[in-house]
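Quick log. Single chain, no ligands specified.
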Amino acid sequence: MPVQREGIDGSKRAELSRRIQILLHANTDSWGIKGSAVTLRDVSLVETMIRGIAKQAEAARERPSRVSMAEGESQAAERMKGPLTFAGRLPQRCACGNQRP
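-> predicted structure:
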């Protein structure tokens, strides 16, 4: 029995084989040819697809940290509202009599 490659389990492999067999039969039936079995043994992805999958996985790993950072910035902004609101309510003149800028 061949070693199963990571990423395609037996049920997915069987489903892909079944779908390929249906497509082959639909396209070769008019010629009088019928394949009796389709077996998917090795699936090789092109380099661009491998890079795309890797980028997608990296983005999925980075997402929680980006969300956490954004939530922290939002909380910091909320905390800063208090001092800013307070500063906005100060009198226009300070105790020495000078007008505030």
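DSSP finds two helices and no strands in the chain.
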